[in-house]
Amino acid sequence: MLAPEDIKPYDAARSKTEQVEEMFDSIAPAYDFMNRAMTFGIDKLWRARAVRMVGKTLPKTLLDVATGTGDLAIKIAREIPGVHVTGIDLSEQMLGIGRAKVSKSGLSSRIDMRKADCLSLPFGDATFDCVTVAYGVRNFENLAKGYREMARVLRPDGMLCVIELSVPKGRLVNPLYRFYSGVVIPAVGRLISSDTSAYSYLPASIAAMPQGKRMLEIMEEAGLGKTSLLPLTFGTCTIYTAYKG
């Protein structure tokens, strides 16, 4: 099986970071609709569960990596009193949509969104009380380096919360998932978006990602501790948490 870094949206020659930026710029107008359609709206419940977990740590400063169109950043700012959220993303088109949503929500004073690379975060050591990533780590050019960077900007005892799609293992659910992710999602993606490669990349990138205990091991190798995981919806999504020692 290919490593996640080897799964790229378009071709083998160019860097994954470059291609991920290009892909999300391309699909930005359809992104929110496709998220709701692909998950039947359950992604909202997954985010809500993660925000409740994050809220228990009472963060005052939070970094949302791969913030995209800002759904998680907005949910966090609405649900956690007093928190200031900084959202970063590679895609300027996604950020543009996100900034409009932040402005419409009335949260512009508490959410900043800027273009930045997760592998070279433009923040000092120990800057944030919490770091979140929703459906983004599988797009990292280098997963281990991404985790090291997120650990670096966390304050001592700070929390990392990662929401990521995963492959269910159940004998009944797994075949249904593979048909849906491998056939239905690419077909719908081709109808909705002009980028025919993006929604074939999605199931391939999910399948290639380290999952379960292996994901926790990578977090620990990056210097994080007290790792745990919470599978959701028959294992189609997993919330991973860790803390900086």
Describe this structure in words.
This protein is of the alpha/beta class. The protein is built from 8 helices and 7 strands. The protein has helices at 16-39, 42-55, 71-79, 92-105, 143-153, 173-192, 198-208, 213-221, and strands spanning 61-65, 84-89, 111-115, 128-134, 154-165, 224-232, 237-244. A 7-stranded mixed sheet has the order 3-2-1-4-5-7-6, sandwiched between helices. The two termini are 33 Å apart.
Question: Keyphrases for this structure?
Answer:
245 residues, 7 strands, alpha/beta
| Overall pLDDT metric | 95
- Return the string of H and E elements: HHEHEHEEHEHHHEE
Assembly type: single chain
Helical run tally: 8
Distance between the termini: 33 Å
**Proportion of residues in helical segments:** 40-55%
Overall morphology:
globular
What's the quick description here?
This protein has helices at residues 16-39, 42-55, 71-79, 92-105, 143-153, 173-192, 198-208, 213-221; strands at residues 61-65, 84-89, 111-115, 128-134, 154-165, 224-232, 237-244. It has 245 residues and is of the alpha/beta class.
What topology does this entry show?
Elements: H1 16-39, H2 42-55, E1 61-65, H3 71-79, E2 84-89, H4 92-105, E3 111-115, E4 128-134, H5 143-153, E5 154-165, H6 173-192, H7 198-208, H8 213-221, E6 224-232, E7 237-244
Parallel strand pairs: 1-2, 1-4, 2-3, 4-5
Antiparallel strand pairs: 5-7, 6-7
